[in-house]
Structure to design on (453 residues):
């Protein structure tokens, strides 16, 4: 009998990477690998990397240093680097880090078990970083869940799924590496998406997030074999699948947010009232240099239209602080925007040069200390807005889908409102995926507290 083979996957960065890690887990599971949460037990280790921020990239190199020692003790161990750093560095990574056996780009993740077999059989490093202009996801993704690890998969995973509908991007924002690491925008066939979600719904999935780098431009692929279905049409069709109670999507470039999509929030009952709409800066001067292709006035008009049609919609955003050339006035415009929109969450970061991005060549970089001060001010302001906005829910009754028991407090459960806000509450004999009514007793900066109704 063969010994049990174990795999360990560490994910850095965005939701897109989380989904890719899930797929790689599935690919390895189909090749009889069982996931482990103990990296020392693994026969195959995958680091699924992100190059959007410098910090995440540095973490990968530091972990690879630790893994070198592990490999010295366990020479049969296969170390793979996937994701955007793998795509960006390619062969250089294999030369620089001889302990690495496999480097594979985001479009090559379906080949993981084949590459592992080759690395084992040939005892040679494997490189797979080709970028293709057509959608690389096999037409029928095996929908079976990953085999359970000794630590068991969380129950959350079984009622909530992320489904990729497109990948890549054609926008070339000047700070971003996605068009270079994930390739040009390409959409997955409508019928394949519907088929996958139907299978998931039959397996008990109640909440689906449609995922892509810029979902609003779904269906614009220049592929004559695809049906010409727009993103709002896709949303309407997914919403009709029996069993899907909550439908979300991520993420969107505001320039592609159409009136047709805004209307969906009034018309599709199970479309959750949450929109992550990355603004990046409140200054038109900076937006132009970022090549975002919208003005702040256009952005605000879309926010107004969304709130007009769906007053309870929750907006969240991404902000880059200290982009090259950002003056005090530009930064103040971003601070003012926080007050105007009153987001209920903002992912904010200091600008850092990313290899291949156009902004690397901009010579008016902002001083590190100024960037840190601005980021601190912005995060403090946003925290107080979060708190004030969350306090507005006090006394209201929210429909909460349970995700599991709270890790921090015994006897407490954690779930999310339709608008994606985390709620903690007491309860017994409950189960993940169940929808309950919770009376909100306290609004906190990043969550709500309540009691079961
Ligand atoms: S829209 Fe801009 S920031 Fe978003 S993935 Fe495309 S290039 Fe990157």
């Amino acid at each position: 009998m063969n010994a049990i083979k174990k795999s360990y996957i560490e994910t850095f960065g965005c939701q897109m990477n989380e989904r890719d890690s899930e797929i790689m887990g599935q690919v390895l599971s189909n090749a009889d690998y069982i996931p482990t949460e103990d990296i020392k037990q693994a026969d195959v280790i995958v680091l699924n990397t992100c190059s959007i921020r410098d910090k995440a990239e540095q973490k990968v190199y530091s972990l690879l240093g630790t893994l070198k020692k592990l490999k010295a003790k366990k020479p049969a161990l296969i170390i793979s680097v996937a994701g955007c750093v793998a795509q960006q560095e390619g062969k250089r990574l294999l030369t620089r880090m001889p302990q690495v056996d496999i480097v594979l780009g985001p479009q090559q993740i379906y080949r993981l078990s084949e590459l592992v077999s080759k690395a084992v059989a040939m005892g040679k490093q494997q490189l797979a970083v080709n970028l293709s202009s057509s959608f690389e996801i096999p037409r029928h993704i095996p929908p079976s869940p990953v085999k359970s690890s000794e630590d068991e998969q969380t129950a959350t995973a079984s009622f909530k799924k992320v489904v990729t509908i497109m990948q890549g991007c054609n926008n070339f924002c000047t700070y971003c590496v996605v068009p270079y690491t994930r390739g040009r925008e390409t959409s997955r066939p409508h019928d394949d998406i519907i088929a996958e979600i139907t299978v998931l719904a039959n397996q008990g999935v109640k909440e689906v997030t449609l995922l892509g780098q810029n979902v609003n431009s779904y269906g614009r692929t220049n592929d004559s074999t695809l049906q010409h279905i727009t993103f709002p049409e896709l949303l309407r069709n997914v919403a009709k699948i029996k069993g899907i109670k909550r439908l979300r999507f991520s993420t969107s470039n505001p320039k592609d947010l159409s009136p047709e999509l805004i209307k969906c929030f009034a018309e599709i009952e199970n479309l959750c009232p949450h929109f992550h709409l990355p603004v990046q800066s409140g200054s038109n001067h900076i937006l132009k240099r970022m090549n975002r292709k919208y003005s702040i006035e256009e952005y605000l008009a879309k926010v107004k239209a969304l709130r007009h049609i769906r007053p309870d919609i929750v907006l969240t955003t991404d902000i880059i602080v200290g982009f090259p050339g950002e003056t005090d006035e530009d930064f103040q415009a971003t601070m003012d925007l926080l007050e105007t929109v009153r987001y209920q969450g903002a992912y904010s970061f200091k600008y850092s040069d990313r290899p291949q991005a156009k902004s690397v060549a901009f010579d008016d970089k902002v001083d590190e200390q100024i960037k840190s001060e601005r980021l601190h001010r912005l995060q403090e302001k946003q925290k107080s807005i979060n708190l004030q906005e969350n306090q507005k829910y006090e006394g209201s009754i929210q429909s909460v889908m349970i995700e599991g028991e709270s890790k921090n407090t015994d006897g407490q459960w954690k779930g999310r409102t339709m608008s994606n806000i985390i709620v903690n509450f007491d309860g017994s004999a409950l189960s993940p995926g169940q929808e309950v009514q919770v009376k909100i007793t306290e609004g906190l900066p990043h969550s709500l507290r309540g009691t079961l109704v």
